[in-house]
């Protein structure tokens, strides 16, 4: 069976992939449609690797067969067979498309299942996606959605077909308060998902892709430096939303959401989590806030927790958000936006921007 060389079709079709690398390798980076069904688990791979360094390839292969045999081998082959039965169009890969892929493919064939392997394995797929991503960044056919904190930029991004939601891919909202309760992906996983999404958009349309204006980090995930440079000079669509609406959105999406996620464990647990979440975020930006402003915000938090526990009220949290926006986030946004305001193509609220983008796509 010929190995897969057409990586573009592979990702455009979301072909299911069996990643036969060890779990520790998979955790460092994989692909959106991949599933880890290892030939060897971590300690087995480590033992074989040590044997290879000390005694050579032949001895390492022999050790691998000794470690994965009998019921253990049958169990792993069955995992591949079950996956192939559920996904007949599946392909498989290891790190370089070498020995592990060939062994897995042969064992599958012995079990009556023929699956193609990817030429070059994970390394070749990763290189392809990085090249694709850097090429699109070089071409630079993008627009940037700008707007003050709490404007609801993500809502716009998710309502547009020709857009990529980097914060959604990063499982983070991109600020000190951006933790969503979900684990963030590995850096490589983030970059791979970004490249695949852009590959699909490019195959569907030649129009510009809309991105949210991002900083260097989205939580612990880093945005590529080339994107930051590109976005500084890219055409801007500016989202404008009244302060009161922004306060309500932040309070709802950040604080009330965090509270509700933990309320199933009891009110005290939810209150404790909300306290830890907000206090921790404020502490991370304490130096930039300054001592007086930080103390005032902590007072709002303490009062808000009491009010929430006693009366179920969120007024003090809204006061906290208003201080953060008026005294910290908005001045910072205005300063940063001033340097690129001349690139603004259109300015409006959610509905106006969506209507304008729809007209531009015609």
Automatic annotation (TrEMBL):
GO annotation, biological process: tRNA wobble uridine modification
Assigned EC number: 2.9.1.3
Keyword match Transferase: yes
Domain Rhodanese: 18-134
Family matches, as PROSITE patterns: RHODANESE_3 (PS50206)
Keywords in alphabetical order: Selenium, Transferase
Active-site residue list: 94 (s-selanylcysteine intermediate)
GO molecular function: transferase activity, transferring alkyl or aryl (other than methyl) groups; tRNA 2-selenouridine synthase activity
Domain of life: Bacteria
One family name in Pfam for this protein: AAA_SelU
Catalytic activity: 5-methylaminomethyl-2-(Se-phospho)selenouridine(34) in tRNA + H2O = 5-methylaminomethyl-2-selenouridine(34) in tRNA + phosphate; 5-methylaminomethyl-2-thiouridine(34) in tRNA + (2E)-geranyl diphosphate = 5-methylaminomethyl-S-(2E)-geranyl-thiouridine(34) in tRNA + diphosphate; 5-methylaminomethyl-2-thiouridine(34) in tRNA + selenophosphate + (2E)-geranyl diphosphate + H2O + H(+) = 5-methylaminomethyl-2-selenouridine(34) in tRNA + (2E)-thiogeraniol + phosphate + diphosphate; 5-methylaminomethyl-S-(2E)-geranyl-thiouridine(34) in tRNA + selenophosphate + H(+) = 5-methylaminomethyl-2-(Se-phospho)selenouridine(34) in tRNA + (2E)-thiogeraniol
Family: Belongs to the SelU family.
Subunit details: Monomer.
The protein's role, per its UniProt record: Involved in the post-transcriptional modification of the uridine at the wobble position (U34) of tRNA(Lys), tRNA(Glu) and tRNA(Gln). Catalyzes the conversion of 2-thiouridine (S2U-RNA) to 2-selenouridine (Se2U-RNA). Acts in a two-step process involving geranylation of 2-thiouridine (S2U) to S-geranyl-2-thiouridine (geS2U) and subsequent selenation of the latter derivative to 2-selenouridine (Se2U) in the tRNA chain.
Name the record gives this protein: tRNA 2-selenouridine synthase
Species per Swiss-Prot/TrEMBL record: Reinekea forsetii
Annotated gene: selU
């Amino acid at each position: 069976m010929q190995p897969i060389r057409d990586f573009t079709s592979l990702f455009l079709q979301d072909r299911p992939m069996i990643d036969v690398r060890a779990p520790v390798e998979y955790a460092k980076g994989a692909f959106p449609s991949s599933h880890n069904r290892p030939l060897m688990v971590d300690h087995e791979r480590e033992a074989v690797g040590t044997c290879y360094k000390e005694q050579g390839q032949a001895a390492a292969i022999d050790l691998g067969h000794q470690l994965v045999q009998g019921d253990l081998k049958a169990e792993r082959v069955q995992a591949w067979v079950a996956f192939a039965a559920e996904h007949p169009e599946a392909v498989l890969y290891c790190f370089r498309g070498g020995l592990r892929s060939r062994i897995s493919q042969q064992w599958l064939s012995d079990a009556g299942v023929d699956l193609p392997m990817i030429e070059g394995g994970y390394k070749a797929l990763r290189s392809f996606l990085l090249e694709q991503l850097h090429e699109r960044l070089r071409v630079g056919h993008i627009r940037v959605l700008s707007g003050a904190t709490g404007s609801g930029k993500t809502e716009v991004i998710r309502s547009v077909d020709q857009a990529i939601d980097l914060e959604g891919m990063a499982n983070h909202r991109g600020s000190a308060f951006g933790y969503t309760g979900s684990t963030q992906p590995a850096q490589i996983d983030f970059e791979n998902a970004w490249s695949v999404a852009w590959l699909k958009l490019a195959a569907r349309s030649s129009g510009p892709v809309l991105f949210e204006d991002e900083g260097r980090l989205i939580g612990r995930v880093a945005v590529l430096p080339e994107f930051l440079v590109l976005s500084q000079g890219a055409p801007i669509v500016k989202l404008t939303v009244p302060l009161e609406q922004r306060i309500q959105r932040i309070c709802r999406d950040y604080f009330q959401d965090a509270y509700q996620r933990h309320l199933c464990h009891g009110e005290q647990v939810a209150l404790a989590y909300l306290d830890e979440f907000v206090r921790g975020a404020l502490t991370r930006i304490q130096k930039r806030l300054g001592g007086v402003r930080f103390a005032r915000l902590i007072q709002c938090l303490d009062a808000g927790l009491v009010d929430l526990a006693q009366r179920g009220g969120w007024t003090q949290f809204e006061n906290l958000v208003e201080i953060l926006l008026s005294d910290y986030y908005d001045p910072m946004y205005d300063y940063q936006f001033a340097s690129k305001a001349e690139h603004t193509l259109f300015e409006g609220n959610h509905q106006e921007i969506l209507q304008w983008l729809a007209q531009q796509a015609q």
